[in-house]
Each structure stands twice: as structure tokens, then as C-alpha cells.
Amino acid sequence: MVTEDSGGTAGGKRDAVTPISQLGYEACRDELIEVVRTLEQGGLDLDASLKLWERGEELARRCEEHLAGARKRVEDALAAGPGDDA
């Protein structure tokens, strides 16, 4: 997650970014929504836009991994059937 510099500097985004592998589904989804909003607003230079787009792609991929894992857990639980303690 990109954090804002609270030091009052103009345009103060820092490069403090949480590794995507450490984010849960909801955090990935929320940051992805923010990335899309920022890109849709425009106003970024090309390099910043590309970096943000790349981060968004990674976030989307991680969201899909989380969802695939959840889907597998549900399928496994259903396959185990009632009475099986998984």
C-alpha cells in the first residue's frame, strides 16, 4: 500500500510500499480500487502511470490467488461432506 508523507511536502507520496505478498484479500482489493481511481483521474506522468498500472496488475493477480484459495477451501469442505471433520 502506498502511504502518504504526512510531512506536508507537495505531492508527498513516499516509496513505502507494502509487499503484495503480505496483503490480505481485502487490502489488495481496496488498494486496487484506489489504483484504478488514480489512473482514471489522470494527471500522472507516463512513468508514474506505468508504475501504478504495474502495481495494479500485481494486486489483481494476488486477489485472484486469494479467491482461488478460498474457492478450493469451499470445494474441499463440500467434498468432505457432513460428519467429516476437516
Automatic annotation (TrEMBL):
Reaction equations catalysed: Exonucleolytic cleavage in either 5'- to 3'- or 3'- to 5'-direction to yield nucleoside 5'-phosphates
Keyword tRNA processing: no
InterPro entries named in the record: Exonuc_VII_S (IPR003761), Exonuc_VII_ssu_sf (IPR037004)
E.C. numbers: 3.1.11.6
An annotated Gene Ontology molecular function: exodeoxyribonuclease VII activity
Domain of life from the UniProt record: Bacteria
SUPFAM superfamilies named among the record's database cross-references: XseB-like
Keywords: Cytoplasm, Exonuclease, Hydrolase, Nuclease
Pfam name, any one: Exonuc_VII_S
Main location: cytoplasm
Family the UniProt entry places it in: Belongs to the XseB family.
Task of the protein: Bidirectionally degrades single-stranded DNA into large acid-insoluble oligonucleotides, which are then degraded further into small acid-soluble oligonucleotides.
Quaternary state and interactors: Heterooligomer composed of large and small subunits.
Protein name, UniProt field: Exodeoxyribonuclease 7 small subunit
